[in-house]
Structures are given as structure tokens and as C-alpha cells.
Amino acid sequence: MKIRQLTSRDDFAALGNLFLKSFKVAYSGMLSKTYLDNLTADQWTKRLKSNPQENWILVDGDKYLGVSTIIAARDQSMQEYGEIRAIYVDPACFRQGYGSILLANDFKQLKKQGYTRVYLWALAENIRAKNFTKNMS
Is there a contact between 60 and 18 (Cβ–Cβ < 8 Å)? Predict the structure, then answer.
């Protein structure tokens, strides 16, 4: 198992599908079924392609286990913060520590970029995300 930055040689379609599968599982019951059913992997594939340097992937051989996105804060009131924009793990790999590996790497990479503060957003209803992040700092 290895964590590394996304490169142009990666399979963006496969990673877009990983985002889609994970997003649908993560937000089932929080967002409308119609909304979730109408999502496609294309939106994530395009975002990954537009800024591959913002993304870190966890791989086991040629299998993608998870992906995270780190950026400078989008919120104007938090400009001194780094932002963890996304962490998505293949639902078949939930509860195996892969999200924690990605999150620890995100903290490390944002620190290397000079950030001493980090934030991420989660829906109030997203108990899984809150439980996942509450002990990480």
C-alpha cells in the first residue's frame, strides 16, 4: 500500500467512479435520492484532471483505495487555513483505516505548504464524518 500524489498517468475515470460510489454511500439519507441518482463520475473526473497536484491517492498495486483533495482555503474568512476539500474511500474498504491514512497525509502535506491550521466541511447530519474527524488533529 502506498500514498502518492495524483499524476497524469493515473486512471482519472476510475478515480471519478471511486468518488461517485463513495459520495453516494456517504450521503445516502442526507441528500435526496433523485439528486444522488443523477450524479455522474464526470464532475469528479474533470476536477481531478484540472488540478491533479491537489490530490493524493492511496493505492494497493494498481487498485485505487481512496483519494483526498487539499487546497488553500476557499472561505475568505479562513485565508490562513489549509482546506481538506475531500476524502473519499472505496466503500468496499470502509472502516479499514484508509481514510485515516489519507487524513494524516493531508495534515502532513498542508503543513509542508506552510499551513498551521486546517479545516474541512461536513454536513451537520453527517455523523460518520464527524466521528471520523473528531479525534484527528
Answer: no
